[in-house]
Each structure stands twice: as structure tokens, then as C-alpha cells.
Design goal:
The structure holds 2 protein chains of 2 kinds. Helices cover 67% and strands 2% of the residues of chain A. Chain A is mainly α. Chain B is built from 3 helices and 8 strands; from the N terminus they run αββββββββαα. Chain B has helices spanning 2-16, 137-140, 142-173, and strands at residues 22-29, 32-39, 46-56, 67-76, 79-85, 98-104, 108-118, 121-131. Classes of the chains: A mainly alpha, B alpha+beta. Chains A and B meet through helix 1, helix 4, helix 7 and helix 30 of A and helix 1, strand 1 and helix 3 of B.
Chain lengths: 708, 174
């Protein structure tokens, strides 16, 4: 550390959660602000934006800067922090008139379906109007100020991070309430006379002055925790006096300045200046197709080539490099980084891994010499083979400790290349991707909850199309090799994001489009090349393996499960491990779900059961993501945020499963009670999986394939 | 003058600050005054953030270029358990402190030895730190579990409000 000044100025708390929250709020506001300017322009738009962002910046400074590092033992720093949170940040945020931009910045469907019913709920509107009227707002602010400065509660906040957070939240939100009647950020107009603001601010200042004076003149240390401040330039009492002065002088200015402005207005008998009328902007209703899309297929080839080189490097290191997994590319890249990255991209974008798949690039090259004339056998045009290979992968991963063997990993990758070339070298289309590849099936199922899909921009364009190049192909590109006809394609199932259809469409009508995650799970219409989900037992079985496999795969690395496995290993002999793992995988991913499904089949039809099995996908994806996050986040010590983030993922998975289940139930039943009865067993199953996931997360984990 | 004031403020801050932890012990050893902080409060089995403030006894100036070692020792069931770490400024939120994340394997009273070296000066100080058993995870993470029923409740209200609105519209249309 170079100097004291450097040390002091670099003492930033930088809590990732708080920063993420502030950034998300700023981005939502910015998006809404920009959308708002597309509808109505106002000369104060930029001032509002600046004020709102400045308010957030002050919250950031109060909670993340050296002020926060100082606050637990330095009352004057703590007081500055409180001043920012109560008196500076809230008015700035309100000057940004945040309600409309924040609502406009959120997804429209979420606002319409999720928030609007609350915004129009009469009791809530009344409560909000009451809370933001002068008397309750003033009382809440003063109560918050006095309450948290009582020694007992102040000490409580100092000793507990939870109560410390509650104290800061209470300061900020009571500040928002207090400044609301003064700033009136809208959209509703105030019903009280303007002169009320004068006593409102003056009385608040009196309370502030009394508390501040008590700090300055009391002569006794109010908060014993600061007794450690006995050495150095200031004593604890001097620090307390400084805190009082900070509260007194800048605090009073913040109250008195607007009070004088209101006084001048009242005395002059002048109401607020009439605002310049906003300018209504003509909206552009149609969007021109992005030029980016015409270049996307080429970019895909470049990415595939990069992945192919990476796969070659992994195989070379796996075959020839050191066989210590954490020091070998084959031990680290496929099992730790690639798996986690592919799930992350599935959650943020879509099936990006299939888009950049190196195996399909190799088979495309090989097809220049291989015939690929036969059609894939009709009997195998299901997902059964892929499902079997998926469970084989789950078993082999555990039984042969693939994560720990670079050589075996390299063999698996080489085998994958050979299989892809052999299958697609003999059979037409993308038979390997559609019917064989277990990795592809993993991505197809996961991408059911992705926020993007390859789809059509306009139905009308497709209706007028006579050439159907998206599936038949043309001189520019081959058509969809997985037989997905764009106008009848629903969701991401079986879509490899190869962009052939994008390139082939002569009308530029196919693109990567935003979609509500998991919405397509609730649809049971005919899907091109797939049919109806309710009729596909093989797909439902694949989903079961995917969902329960997530829990089996994660459970395989926790201490209690490993103890049981090793116990049986000791009893049955040295070669029994593959059998023990097979029993564990089959029990967890096949027998238990089969028993549960069989139980539900006694009172629900097979079609209904098949539809509902798909609603379990979100909780399955959540478990995969939570598990893989563990591998990525491993450092010398596990980071503090990891378990919380994992639980949040499971929370999101459970909530999305319940939501999708509810939507499906409403489609299957006309009455609410019947829908609830239909949903009950699936909700119970989702909760059971959630509980299992939480149990797994709380167990000591084996840090496999990692350096320690 | 301004520089002096700033240095004074920083020195004072150095005495006061920790990474949000509690003071475990403080004392003078050789040319140094050593204060040890711990977080969370109370310290439990698992990862704990231990930080050390080193000042010169003469002049109260914080020492920023020392080599600090933390050595935790506890006797349990006839065995000696030891944990050692080298706290640094990089691991500290408050860069005037030397901090280290340490995994504490068992509960009870631990002896903490703090060794400080700066050039030719070296000093050692010992104190005690009491470690509690780990908090049950459900208590530790309860806010994460409240989220699901809370959002479930909000969704139920949302659905009810939408139904009510639909029902109100239907008779009006008829």
C-alpha cells in the first residue's frame, strides 16, 4: 500500500448484489426514459434523467464507498451516509419522475399482466395516496429519524448486518415518502395547498436540529460501540460532535432552502409556472430488418471454427498432456467452463452452444466426400435413442469419473466427432442432432425457457410466401435440416440456432426474436416436425431424465451420497462401482419419477400427464444452473454469495414451474377448483424437487476436478 | 496544513475502521499497537474474516508495509488444531487493515497469535477468540426461502384481482 491517502480512498465495499440492483434500476429507467421520448418529448427530459441517475449515484456512494467501510466505527462517516440516504438521494430520485419511466422500462407483458392489476387496485391506490400525503409522510420520516437514533436501536443496527440494512432501507424509503409531497413527481396531482410545504419542512428541520444539538452538546457518548475511537486525532466524543454538526448544518440547508422557495412563491401569490406542453412524437410502427442478420450465418461459421480449434486443443492435451485433471484443458474446459457457459447462454440468450457446435462443422466438411443419401430409419425417429444416450452419459460421468480423466474426456470428444460424421455421413439432414446427440437434447429442453427464439417477424409475409425456402432451401442456403417449418414452429425444441433458415428466407422475415421465457411450454398446438407435446411420450421421457437427472448429477457429488456409494463399494468389491452408480442413476432418474408419474396417472389422463411433465423444465434448468455455478465459482474458498445465488436460482425455477403449471392447468380446466386439483400433484412434485435441491446445496460438496 | 489534517483524519479512521467486524482484542507489542477484528459477529465455524490493524505506538500512525501472520491454535480431543494465514491489504475492504478469510474448523475458544514484522522490528501478541457452532442453514438463508411464498401470495392476489375485473366487465357488457 503506497500511502495512507491511497489506502483510505481505495476502501470501497463494492457489494455485487447492491451494485447489480442499482445498475438494473438505472437500466430499466433508461430504457423507459428512451421509450417515453419516443412517445412524448419534454424539455425537462434530460434534467429528469440526470437527477434520477445522480440519486442512484448517491445511494451507491452512501452504501459502497469508503463511507460504508468507515461507518461501523466512525459516527461522523455514518451520519454522512444517513444524510445522503435520507436528504439527498430521495429528492434527486423523485426529481427524475421515476414512476412512468420505470414502468415503461419493464417488459410490456409483465407490466400489463403482473403489475397493472395492483396499480388499479383501489385499496392500494388509496393507501399510496394516504402515505404520500403530508401528515403520514412527515410522521414516517420523523419517526424513522428518531427511532433509529435511539441508542438501543442504533446499537442493534451496528451489531447486526440485517438491522443495519433495515435501518438504511428505512431511511431511504421514509426519505422518498417525505419528499414526495414536496416534489410531487406525478403522475397524480396534489390535493393540498402549496403553503403546507412551509410548516412541513420547518417542523422537520426543528426535529433534525434537536437531534443534532443533542449529539453536539450532550457531553456523553451516546453509542458505546464508538468508544473504541479513543486514540488518534479525534476522541469518540469529538467524533460524535462532528456527526451532530454534519446533521445540523447541511441537513438544515436541505430543509430550509425549499422552504424559502415555497415561502417566496406563496408571498408572491404565484403558482407553479405553467409547463411547456410536451411534444407528441410520431412513432415508427414498422422496424426495418437488421443488417446484422445478413452477416450472422458467416459469424456462426467463424465461431464454429474457433470451437473446432478449441476442441482439437482439448483433445491434444487430453491425449498427450498431464493426466492431472485440474492442470489439463480436457479436465477444466469441458466439465467446468463449457457446461456452465452453455447453461448461462441458454438462460440469457438461447441455444448458443448448438449454434457454434464444432461437431456439425466437422460433419459439414466430411459431407463433401460422404454420400449422406439414406433417410433416418422411421422406427428411430423419436427421442428414445437420445434419451438412452443421455442416461448413459449421466452414468458414465459418475462411474468412470470423466471429470477426473483427461484421456477419457478426449476419447469422448473424439468419439463424438466420429459419431457425428458417421451418422450424418450416411443419413440425410441433421439426424445426429435431432435423434442422437444427448448434448443437443439437453440444450433443446433447456432452451424451452430461453428468452430468445428463431422465429418469424410477420405472419402475413409467410402466408404470401410460395417458395418456403426456410425449409426447402435455395442457392443461398440449405433449408432447415431438422425439418422445422418456420410458420408452424413453436418454441426452441429441436432448433439448433444454425441460422440456415435466416439465410435462406428471401424476405428477411426470420430472425432471433425475444420471447417470454417458458411461454411456449404452455402452448399445446401442433409444432412443425414435433407434433403436440401432449402426444409425445418420448419427449416427455426425455424431459423427465433432464429434470431428475439434474438432481441425480448434483447429488452424486455430495458427501452423504458418496458415503453410501463408498459403503456399498467396500461391501461388493473393487469392480462394483459402475454397478452402484448405475443403480443410483436409474433409481434417481428413472424409478423415482416413474413411480411418481404412475401415481398421478391414476387420476389424470396420459395426455395431461405428458403436458404437465414439461412444466418441470424450469426447476430442472435451475438445478443444473445452481450445480454448474458451484463449479465455476470455486476459488480457494467458496465465495459468500454462492449459496444465496444458488437458492435464488432454485427459487426462480420453482416459481416459473408453478406459474407455467398454473397456465397449463387453466387451459385444461374451466373452473378454478378443477385447475387447482390438476396442478396439485405437479406443484407437490416441484416442491419436492425444490426441497431436494436445497438439501443438496446444504451438503458438503466434493470439489472434484479442482485445484486446492 | 491540509495534508496534516488529511493525515490526521486518516489516522483516526484507521483506529476506528474495520471490515464491519467486532474488536476481538487490542494491545501493545514492541513498537506496535495491534488490534484484531473479526467478522461475522459472533464468529462461527466456517469462513471468518479476520483483520488486523497495526499502528506505531509512537505517533499512532498506521503501519502499511508490515508482514502480518495470523496463527490460530486450539486443543480439542487431545489434538492440536492449527490454522495459519497471511492477511493482506488486498483482502481487506478497509485498506488500512490486513485481512484474511480463514476457514475455522471447530467451535470453542481459540488462541490467536498475531505476528508482525516491519524491517528489523518484530512483535507478537496473543489473544482469545470464541467461535460458535455453525448457524443452521435454514436460519442463515431464511430471506431466500420467504421469497417463494411471498411471490406466490402476490401472484394469487394478482389472479384474484384480474378475475374480479373480468367479472365486473362481463355484466357491464351484457
Amino acid at each position: 500500500m503506497e500511502s495512507l491517502a491511497t489506502a483510505a480512498l481505495t476502501s470501497w465495499t463494492l457489494d455485487a448484489r447492491a451494485i447489480a440492483l442499482l445498475l438494473a434500476t438505472a437500466l430499466i429507467y433508461l430504457r423507459g426514459w428512451q421509450r417515453g421520448r419516443g412517445i412524448v418529448r419534454d424539455e425537462r427530459d434530460w434534467a429528469r434523467l440526470s437527477a434520477f441517475l445522480a440519486g442512484l449515484l448517491l445511494v451507491f456512494l452512501a452504501t459502497e464507498s469508503p463511507l460504508d467501510a468507515f461507518d461501523s466505527l466512525f459516527l461522523s462517516a455514518h451520519m454522512t451516509q444517513h444524510l445522503l440516504l435520507m436528504m439527498f438521494a430521495p429528492p434527486l430520485v423523485l426529481f427524475g419522475a421515476p414512476l412512468l419511466p420505470l414502468l415503461r422500462g419493464l417488459p410490456k407483458t409483465f407490466v400489463k399482466e403482473g403489475i397493472a392489476p395492483f396499480l388499479t387496485w383501489h385499496p392500494l391506490k388509496q393507501l399510496f395516496a394516504w402515505l404520500t400525503s403530508p401528515a403520514p409522510a412527515w410522521a414516517a420520516f420523523v419517526f424513522s429519524s428518531v427511532f433509529w437514533h435511539l441508542p438501543k436501536f442504533y446499537e442493534l443496527a451496528l451489531s447486526s448486518p440485517f438491522w443495519h440494512g433495515a435501518q438504511h432501507a428505512s431511511f431511504f424509503w421514509s426519505g422518498i415518502l417525505f419528499w414526495w409531497p414536496i416534489i410531487q413527481p406525478g403522475p397524480a396531482k396534489a390535493k393540498w395547498p402549496e403553503w403546507i410545504a412551509i410548516p412541513y419542512l420547518l417542523f422537520a428541520d426543528i426535529v433534525n436540529t434537536v437531534i443534532a444539538a443533542f449529539f453536539v452538546f450532550s457531553g456523553t457518548l451516546l453509542y458505546p460501540s464508538y468508544a473504541v475511537a479513543r486514540a488518534g486525532a479525534m476522541t469518540a466524543l469529538e467524533d460524535q460532535s462532528l456527526a451532530g454538526l454534519i446533521m445540523w448544518v447541511p441537513g438544515s440547508v436541505v430543509y430550509l432552502l425549499p422552504a424559502f422557495v415555497f415561502m417566496a412563491r406563496v408571498v408572491a401569490g404565484r403558482r407553479k409556472q405553467r409547463e411547456a406542453p410536451p411534444i407528441r412524437v410520431k412513432q415508427q410502427l414498422t422496424r426495418a430488418p437488421s443488417k446484422l442478420w445478413s452477416k450472422a450465418p458467416r459469424a456462426r461459421r467463424i465461431a464454429q471454427a474457433g470451437m473446432l480449434l478449441l476442441a482439437a486443443a482439448v483433445m491434444a492435451d487430453g491425449f498427450r498432456g498431464t493426466q492431472v485433471a485440474p492442470m489439463n484443458l480436457a479436465g477444466v474446459l469441458p466439465w467446468i467452463h463449457w457446461r456452465a457457459l452453455s447453461v448461462l447462454t441458454l438462460l440469457v440468450v438461447g441455444n448458443v452452444f448448438c449454434m457454434v457446435c464444432p461437431f456439425t462443422l466437422a460433419r459439414d466438411v466430411a459431407r463433401r466426400v460422404l454420400p449422406a443419401r439414406l433417410r433416418w430409419p422411421r422406427a428411430l425417429r423419436t427421442k428414445w435413442l437420445a434419451a438412452a444416450l443421455f442416461i448413459l452419459y449421466l452414468w458414465a460421468y459418475e462411474a468412470f469419473a470423466l471429470w477426473d480423466s483427461p484421456w477419457l474426456t478426449a476419447c469422448v470428444i473424439a468419439g463424438y466427432f466420429l459419431a457425428a460424421i458417421a451418422v450424418d455421413g450416411i443419413f440425410r439432414g441433421a439426424s445426429f442432432c435431432k435423434y442422437v446427440c444427448p448434448i443437443g437434447q439437453f440444450h433443446f429442453v433447456s432452451s424451452l425457457i430461453s428468452p430468445r427464439e428463431i422465429g418469424i417477424r410477420s405472419e402475413a409475409v409467410c402466408q404470401s410466401c410460395r417458395t418456403h425456402d426456410c425449409i426447402r432451401g435455395n442457392e443461398r442456403a440449405r433449408g432447415c435440416e431438422l425439418s422445422l417449418f418456420q410458420p408452424r414452429k413453436i418454441g426452441n425444441l429441436d432448433c439448433t440456432f444454425c441460422l440456415d433458415c435466416v439465410k435462406a428466407c428471401p424476405h428477411d422475415n426470420v430472425a432471433l426474436l425475444p420471447v417470454i421465457p417458458a411461454k411456449t411450454v404452455t402452448l399445446d398446438g401442433y409444432r412443425s416436425s414435433i407434433g403436440r407435446l401432449a402426444k409425445r411420450t418420448d419427449l416427455a421421457a426425455l424431459v423427465v431424465l433432464f429434470v431428475f437427472g439434474a438432481f441425480v448429477n448434483a447429488a452424486g457429488m455430495v458427501a452423504p451420497v458418496m458415503r453410501v456409494e463408498h459403503g456399498w463399494h467396500a461391501r461388493l468389491g473393487p469392480h462394483a462401482m459402475p454397478l452402484i452408480v448405475a443403480a443410483f442413476v436409474i433409481a434417481g432418474a428413472v424409478i423415482i419419477p416413474a413411480v411418481l408419474v404412475a401415481a398421478v396417472l391414476t387420476w389424470q389422463s396420459a395426455d395431461t400427464v405428458r403436458r404437465f411433465l414439461f412444466v418441470l423444465v424450469p426447476i430442472g434448468v435451475a438445478m443444473w444452473a445452481a450445480h454448474l455455478l458451484y463449479h465455476v465459482a470455486q476459488m480457494p474458498l467458496l465465495p459468500d454469495w454462492l449459496t444465496g445465488a444458488q437458492i435464488l436460482l432454485l427459487d426462480a425455477g420453482l416459481l416459473l414451474t408453478l406459474y407455467v403449471g398454473w397456465r397449463v392447468a387453466l387451459q385444461c380446466a374451466e373452473r378454478i377448483r378443477t385447475a387447482l386439483a390438476l396442478l396439485a400433484p405437479w406443484a407437490a412434485m416441484a416442491c419436492l424437487l425444490y426441497g431436494t435441491g436445497i438439501w443438496i446445496l446444504f451438503q458438503p460438496m466434493e470439489m472434484r476436478g479442482m485445484m486446492h | 496544513m491540509i495534508r496534516r489534517f488529511f493525515a490526521g483524519l486518516v489516522v483516526c479512521a484507521g483506529v476506528l475502521l474495520a471490515d464491519g467486524g467486532a474488536v476481538q482484542f487490542r494491545g501493545t507489542a514492541g513498537a506496535f499497537e495491534i488490534t484484531m477484528f473479526s467478522s461475522p459477529t459472533p464468529v462461527r465455524i466456517g469462513t471468518a474474516d479476520l483483520s488486523v490493524l497495526v499502528k506505531k505506538t509512537a505517533g499512532d500512525a498506521p503501519v502499511l508495509d508490515a508482514d502480518v501472520t495470523l496463527h490460530l491454535v486450539k486443543a480439542a480431543d487431545g489434538k492440536i488444531i492449527e490454522v495459519t494465514a497471511h492477511p493482506t491489504h488486498n483482502q481487506a475492504t478497509n485498506k488500512l487493515l490486513y485481512a484474511a478469510n480463514m476457514r475455522i474448523p471447530s467451535n470453542g475458544s481459540w488462541r490467536v497469535d498475531v505476528l508482525v514484522k516491519q524491517g528489523a522490528n518484530a512483535a507478537a501478541m496473543s489473544g482469545r477468540m470464541f467461535v460458535l457452532p455453525p448457524q443452521p442453514p435454514f436460519l442463515k438463508y431464511w430471506p431466500y426461502f420467504v421469497l417463494v411464498p411471498l411471490l406466490g401470495l402476490l401472484f394469487a392476489i394478482n389472479q384474484r384481482l384480474k378475475r374480479q375485473r373480468r367479472n365486473r366487465r362481463l355484466p357491464a357488457r351484457r
